[in-house]
Amino acid sequence: KNQVEQSPQSLIILEGKNCTLQCNYTVSPFSNLRWYKQDTGRGPVSLTIMTFSENTKSNGRYTATLDADTKQSSLHITASQLSDSASYICVVSAIYNQGGKLIFGQGTELSVKP
Amino acid sequence: DSGVTQTPKHLITATGQRVTLRCSPRSGDLSVYWYQQSLDQGLQFLIQYYNGEERAKGNILERFSAQQFPDLHSELNLSSLELGDSALYFCASSVEGSSYQETQYFGPGTRLLVL
User: Fold this and answer.
1) A107 touches chain B (CB under 8 A)
2) What number of H helices and E strands is found in chain B?
3) Closest Cα partner for A5 from A19, A20, A26?
4) Cis (ω within 30 of 0) for the bond into A29?
5) Mutate which of B43, B94, B103 to test chain A, going by most A C-beta atoms within 10 A?
6) What's the pLDDT tens digit per position in B22-65?
7) Is A3 touching B (CB cutoff 8 A)?
8) Do A103 and A3 meet the contact criterion of CB atoms below 8 Å apart?
């Protein structure tokens, strides 16, 4: 069964600190992995998309890594800001002959405190 | 601002009723996706349309239906509403229909409350 598991479920950090969010998946055949940021009550916003050949991708203070062998990804946030408080969702794409499918993780709720 | 618009922002209705949610994709995007997000669940993919035709189906109930019109806007119809249908409904769009490769741009969502 295709699954995407994220950890931790929630995280509280102090402003200025770094943090790392984890995503493990069992999706096959794998096409790409995305990280989204979703502010409360708003639509998700894409942070990064990585294919199996990419190990790392950055978007400002956000850096995503991918290990396609172990089927693990992480999202590292550097020098956190209050505006980083949001839900971070890992989404993995599976590709089939007739198309593809997106499998969503449950998200990690990040709270950055002053 | 993603360029995807959704109306209405909020909707309160009673059980058994029918509602219609509307979505306008980004200019130039041919594909529209509908998602449901309940409080205790993550995003659930409902259905995808590409240039007016249904492209992919997810966990969409039979009481729900959708369509994409020639001007590419889309509507999601929810009927015989139940309390459990209360959720945020998001629309997303992308340039083509390759949902597994493209970035999807999400709208602000419609918050539905069924009483």
Assistant:
1) yes
2) 0, 11
3) A26
4) yes
5) B43
6) 999 999 999 999 999 987 778 888 999 999 999 888 889 999 99
7) no
8) yes
Q: Which two tokens stand for residue B71?
A: 């001007």
With CB atoms and an 8 Å threshold, state whether B108 touches A43.
yes
Shortest alpha-carbon distance between residue B89 and chain A (Å): 9
Q: Give residue for tokens 């709208």.
A: B107
| Residue B97 DSSP code | S
C-alpha to C-alpha distance for A67 and A55, rounded to whole angstroms: 6
Residue among A78, A76, A75, A58 nearest A23 (CA):
A75
Among the partner residues A31, A43, A105, nearest to B100 by beta-carbon distance? A31
> Quick one: DSSP state of residue A111?
E
The count of other CB atoms within 10 Å of the CB of residue A95 is 17
Query: Does A13 touch chain B if contact means CB atoms closer than 8 Å?
Result: no
Q: Give B-chain residues touching A44 at CB under 8 angstroms.
A: 43, 90, 106
Tell whether the model's pLDDT for residue A100 goes beyond 90. no
